[in-house]
Amino acid sequence: MYSEADLQSAIAAGAISHEAAEALRAHAAGLRSAPVADEEHFRLITGFNDIFVTIAAVLLMVACAGIGEAIAPGIAGLLVAVSAWAMATFFTAKRRMALPSIVLLLGFVGGVAAIPINILAESEPNLPDRVNALIGAGIGLGAAAAAWFHWRRFMVPITVAAGAGAIVVTLLALVMAAIAPAIQGREEQFLLPMVFLAGCGVFALAMRWDMSDRARETRRSDVAFWLHLLSAPMIAHPLFHWLGVTEGQNIGLAAAVGVLAIYIAMGLVALAVDRRALLVSALAYVLMALAWLFRNFGMVELNVAITGLVIGLALLLLSAFWGPIRHAVVVRLPAALQARLPLAPALA
To answer: What pLDDT, in 10s, does the model give residues 72-88?
Structure first.
């Protein structure tokens, strides 16, 4: 089985021509009765060896963390970052193994961020909120720098999302540090709108990567996938929190209907941009809303089962007919917008 990344590598090495690769993609898409752009590929596992190497890498990084803890504060994160980088030079740069590369990237960035966190945790300083926020901003900036260096060396698609997440943390921490004295006790009221705006910004960045590869043939599409995965919960959680559904059972009819309306709107956006991350990120809130509706309208004993049945059937039908439904949505959009979206079946 050959992945999209293998095809790209073969073209770059001159093993096959671009035309031959296009013909192979078209043939594979025809067998699946769907265009390449509609498949939303991303490489995760190419064989059991990916899982084997990932387990070994995690065990090694955990061992490094344990040894570092016994030496001095901050050494655990340093050893994890160094070991993750060293392993990436072989399993990422040479072997191009997807799942180990993702884990090693997270280990490297997480290790860099853990160095100051571990040092501060050991010293237990009693610092003002503003200083803590500034320290958080510095940690986020360090993690973003680590992600940038990792991207320059290995170019793992998830790295851009990791860096974007670190930059978001940095910016949020800086803003909170600036306004900390004026919002004592009301931090959540200010933080959630900023998270929502940051999520919209990450979504816009994801669309920029997506629009540069409408046919989804290059690494840029994989980068966009991870950015969409990052932006989705940042957009969904504030919206549903404002509806009052994050308290679990404390929702009403208006909130439940509002959840369903927002989920439908997210579904239309997901269809337009051909990314399913928005649907997945909001799923828990929809399950809560439907369970409330079924419980309060006569299905008390079976509300959970009926909720799962309805959502499961809806998602299965949407997956089975994603192409035709997406085409019906995209053709109703302005032509200028259609020309920038990922290719729909009739546009391919």
So the answer is: 999 999 999 999 999 99
